[in-house]
Amino acid sequence: MLLKDKIPFKYIFGEIKYEVAYVMAYSVLVWALYHNVHVIRISIPLTVPAILGTVISLLLGFRSNQAYDRWWEARHIWGAIVNDSRSLARQVFCFMQEEFESEQLEQLRNRFVKRQIAWTHSLGQNLRGHSPLTGLERFLSRKDIETVSRYTNVPAAILNLHAHDIRDALNSGYINRFQQVELDRTISRLCDSQGKCERIKNTVFPSTYSLYIHFSLLLFICLLPFGFIEIFGILEVLVVTAISACFMLIEKMAIHLQDPFENKPTDTPVTAIAKNIERDLKQMMEDENGRAEPAVPVPASTPAFYLM
Amino acid sequence: MLLKDKIPFKYIFGEIKYEVAYVMAYSVLVWALYHNVHVIRISIPLTVPAILGTVISLLLGFRSNQAYDRWWEARHIWGAIVNDSRSLARQVFCFMQEEFESEQLEQLRNRFVKRQIAWTHSLGQNLRGHSPLTGLERFLSRKDIETVSRYTNVPAAILNLHAHDIRDALNSGYINRFQQVELDRTISRLCDSQGKCERIKNTVFPSTYSLYIHFSLLLFICLLPFGFIEIFGILEVLVVTAISACFMLIEKMAIHLQDPFENKPTDTPVTAIAKNIERDLKQMMEDENGRAEPAVPVPASTPAFYLM
Amino acid sequence: MLLKDKIPFKYIFGEIKYEVAYVMAYSVLVWALYHNVHVIRISIPLTVPAILGTVISLLLGFRSNQAYDRWWEARHIWGAIVNDSRSLARQVFCFMQEEFESEQLEQLRNRFVKRQIAWTHSLGQNLRGHSPLTGLERFLSRKDIETVSRYTNVPAAILNLHAHDIRDALNSGYINRFQQVELDRTISRLCDSQGKCERIKNTVFPSTYSLYIHFSLLLFICLLPFGFIEIFGILEVLVVTAISACFMLIEKMAIHLQDPFENKPTDTPVTAIAKNIERDLKQMMEDENGRAEPAVPVPASTPAFYLM
Amino acid sequence: MLLKDKIPFKYIFGEIKYEVAYVMAYSVLVWALYHNVHVIRISIPLTVPAILGTVISLLLGFRSNQAYDRWWEARHIWGAIVNDSRSLARQVFCFMQEEFESEQLEQLRNRFVKRQIAWTHSLGQNLRGHSPLTGLERFLSRKDIETVSRYTNVPAAILNLHAHDIRDALNSGYINRFQQVELDRTISRLCDSQGKCERIKNTVFPSTYSLYIHFSLLLFICLLPFGFIEIFGILEVLVVTAISACFMLIEKMAIHLQDPFENKPTDTPVTAIAKNIERDLKQMMEDENGRAEPAVPVPASTPAFYLM
Amino acid sequence: MLLKDKIPFKYIFGEIKYEVAYVMAYSVLVWALYHNVHVIRISIPLTVPAILGTVISLLLGFRSNQAYDRWWEARHIWGAIVNDSRSLARQVFCFMQEEFESEQLEQLRNRFVKRQIAWTHSLGQNLRGHSPLTGLERFLSRKDIETVSRYTNVPAAILNLHAHDIRDALNSGYINRFQQVELDRTISRLCDSQGKCERIKNTVFPSTYSLYIHFSLLLFICLLPFGFIEIFGILEVLVVTAISACFMLIEKMAIHLQDPFENKPTDTPVTAIAKNIERDLKQMMEDENGRAEPAVPVPASTPAFYLM
């Protein structure tokens, strides 16, 4: 997640520094040849690159729109994960009860809430291509970890453990039949959110589309110096570089936004969101248990200019 | 929220008065240099800035679209909060009952409805960066305030209190098991709305995108006087300023719309909406209680040209 | 609601007749000055107004899109009101029953359905700024009217009366607990629809955005005659007026569409829809009661070229 | 529904043959006058019609987008009708049961499924402006037809009959109370789909918007020959006709798409969809009844190049 | 599904190699005629093809947008199929139980889950135009295959078998009445997803729209050489071919994206998704059964550069 007012100028242009260098070199070369080699004194009317620029802006506009939509959808999904995690914990604490609160029930509820935290971390790590099991020992029992590590899809396996505990709670009389169905619905929503993340992660943006725009952009940049050389002279190098940088930046942006789970600064901040869920659910758990648990300290987010 | 027909002209241009001054100074300077310093008598064909203008309009159009969508989504969410608050109060009064209406039940219902008002105010203040606890003592008991102030996320804690009261109502026999689940769903919807607001608040608009458009706009304004100077002479200053002001205004608008919870006049009017909910829920409460409570006077909205 | 094939040409241009007159006068003036006063013989290249025209079309296109979305959303909501009113009536007649159909039950059902008709009319009138109580005496008892007139928000109060009757029906054993919850959901959907209408009604379109486009349009029209005068001579007046009229018409259209509850011909036809609901629900009521009630005649829609 | 690869070239241009003839005649006339009458030898720069063309493309693009959305929404709704009809039949066969399958129950289930087929046909015919009662005698009993023909809105009346049968099934003990509510929800969804179709049918596309684009297009076509006459000579007739035909075709397309229930080839294929539902539901009915009913032969869809 | 970084350059241009060859031949011909046949030395101003290019980009942009939406919707639906299949399996294992786990129950659960795998494969094959019955013998009993093969719509028939088993489970007391309704809802969602796929498959993109853009593109390419010949000479062939290729590529892309179930590389990867569901559901089944079943080996996805 980008944090406002903190992105160093260096970072932004770091992304395209090689491209900018190439363009600058190219436009100097064109200028040099134009003034020395009399044979290739080509100057094309400005209309050609200008119109090409309009066309490219249009397509780039449509494309950034679609990339933005993917990125915003990913953020939507993780927003829903926050809401459903909170609702699940609320339901666990307010649905599951018996006449005399037993230790067994308290253990079940705590296990449930910790497992939900584990799911959030596990899903985030899985989407980023890391091991979905790392760090789960803080939240899951050894037996549960063994069970879920047998599955290819670890987060889905964690949700199955949820469902088993709900069944056991029904059998123990902690919840009634309506509450079971209602809890199952919350789990179905979490399952949906997981599936949606996986869909975005596994479906590449149509690459022919991207390639077309990239080729058009190259053609446009190649023609640019010939359009400006007669009007601006050597200043042409500056104008060409500035305009090219603008277009390349927005193309880069679209490429980043379209894949929101790739360890890039514009990513959905899954780690930060998972830590927030952890904090909220732990506070709720401590409050319900009526005493302050020795809270596992949540590592502070590093003072970087973006959140993972 | 902007109120129609009330925005003074001064306010609109106040937003960009420094920028307009700079542009005017710059174009006067260009005119002066053009007519005095014979060396830099550059006049570029109008096509260059004109086409650049089309490109920028296009990108600005796409961007305002996205900013508008964020703003409109925020408004949607607060609309849903109004609806769900009304539905919650209706359900509380029509679901919760016993054969002989007891004082205890009446207290529970009133406590519930007042807490819902507290939640609305608290969420609005939290989103605007103010303390979420300010003024809650009008609606919450001292004990409840103590409980919620232990949480990092105060509005979420208030919803948890709701859930506890629903559980108690089930145990006391005021509601049946279906009604508990139905009330819990309404609370889940409120929890969703809260999460959506926090998502919009915490996710910045991709800043590289904004920066790109801003740089392009600067480039465009810099080139503008050179395009008009030959045709219009000194009148060029007027034309350049007018066109620049248009573009800068719409960019400003997009910047305002994209962050709808930042104490700006184009914000979602969370305070006004919370007050409306307070008014409606109190009327309902008084009517149900069968007598006119000494209503806490709702402060009139200030006669400003926008609502907070 | 606009009715196809019935809008007189006069109506369309009536909307912008003063503006057209001003533009015509202005372009005649420009022509006169151009040919008589030799000092101000300015002719600007056609590119300037032409490109400005592209920019404005683009922004106008985006804006009409957003205005159209508001208008279409309003139509969506009233479509949902039709559906939910029909569903509510169907549920009332098919859920509420007892072994031997009593007169009391029939009265309850009829009261319920009539109150639903009352709600529709009341909401429509409220949105258009008329008194929400006018004409309700045809559908509500004197006591109910007294109750709802104590509320600031009359339609919301009518829905509360619905909820009370549902509670009484549960207590009388006419419906079971599932049916109560299901009826409550239908009422929640109606409550949502009401809230959505109020959101559209109370949220103005960002006015700075509109103003920007309006100023740009003025600038464009002012420049237009200077672009055409050399090519077309006096015919310039015709061309300028035609083009300006086109742009002004589409701007007017966007302004109308963006506020769909303002007593304008492009409004959502809330009165007509409410009358249709009244007709359908009354037919259903008569059929269920097994006899033809002396139907209150629904006033025919006036043969105007638009429906309110 | 348009069937791919089957639309004869003649059909496409048949739609605009008169318009094309007028344009051709007009451009020949302009050529003739240009070369014979020396007085009106006007040739305007190509920029004027060209830019006008861009503006019109833009608006036409936005408009086709909105027309396409209406058409696609209509297709969505009928897709939902297919799904909900299948679900309703599945629920009727799997929910409604008793210990010993009686003939009475079998009759009820068959009556229900046939009535659902009737509803689909009736809704389709109603939307296309045909009598909603035609052909219903194949699916409804004489008594049911009499009942529904008393209603203004026949499909809504059929859904009411559904609801009555569900109530009777509950009273006879064929279904339990949850299943009643679940069946009622399916019927509410069908009721929603019907209401959405009626909304699209009854809400015209804002006609001022269409008119504006139409006038602009006429203006553009009138100017076109003057722009090309100097460059192309008599070939101008061909170029002008080709370009005009393109624009007129896409305008026609938008007009067709925006009203998807008007007996036009681009319509939603309500008849074909209703027949598919009929086929699927009958197969299910025969299978459940355990014997092959003498199936009413479904008339083959005519080998036309589009489906109704 | 396109796999990133693996699409050979040859593949991309293979799609349009004939078109590129034609364009190249055509522009060489124009060059040859221009320089040899003095009669047809037509050179048109660059503005004509350039503006036409803008118009076409705009329409192509809108169209790719709509094609992309269809493709993305198809991907959405199959994402929902993954989620609902997982949820169905989870519900089957956690809802269906009895006091002493009997072999009969285990068989029922396994049959259910295998049938769900069968449904996924069957739907995928049906959408791609293959026989929906191929390979189902791995998952369905001989009797079930016989039953479903009597239906025109095989996947819908499989869902009916699901519904029958749910009814039997209710009668056997494995599930309660709420769970039956909840399972039925999951099946309704699967039924919805199937219907949505069929809608996309059976509704062609409005062909007149496609044709219009195709004709405009042809006209544009025909005019292109005449615009460039004077400026670039023989180099014109390269420029014309490059620009044409760009436009043709993006048109091709839109054509591919708009029909996402046609055995093309850009298709929704229904086979791969069905195999993933198979893998996940089998792992869950083995785990629940408490022993490792001799798993039917899932054929590895071929190392091609796209997934089916």
Describe the structure.
Chains A, B, C, D, E: The chain crosses the membrane at residues 20-37, 43-62, 209-226, 232-250. Chains A, B, C, D, E: It comes from Flavipsychrobacter stenotrophus. Chains A, B, C, D, E: It is found in: Cell membrane. The structure is a homopentamer of 308-residue chains. Chain A is mainly α. Chain A folds into 2 domains: 1-43, no CATH class; 44-220 and 231-243 and 257-289, no CATH class. Helices cover 72% and strands 0% of the residues of chain A. The first copy, chain A, is built from 10 helices and no strands. Chain A has helices at residues 9-14, 17-36, 47-95, 103-127, 142-149, 154-172, 177-202, 207-232, 236-258, 270-289. The termini of chain A are close together. Chains in contact: A-B, A-E, B-C, C-D, D-E.
Annotate the secondary structure layout.
Five copies of one chain form a homopentamer.
Chain A: H1 9-14, H2 17-36, H3 47-95, H4 103-127, H5 142-149, H6 154-172, H7 177-202, H8 207-232, H9 236-258, H10 270-289
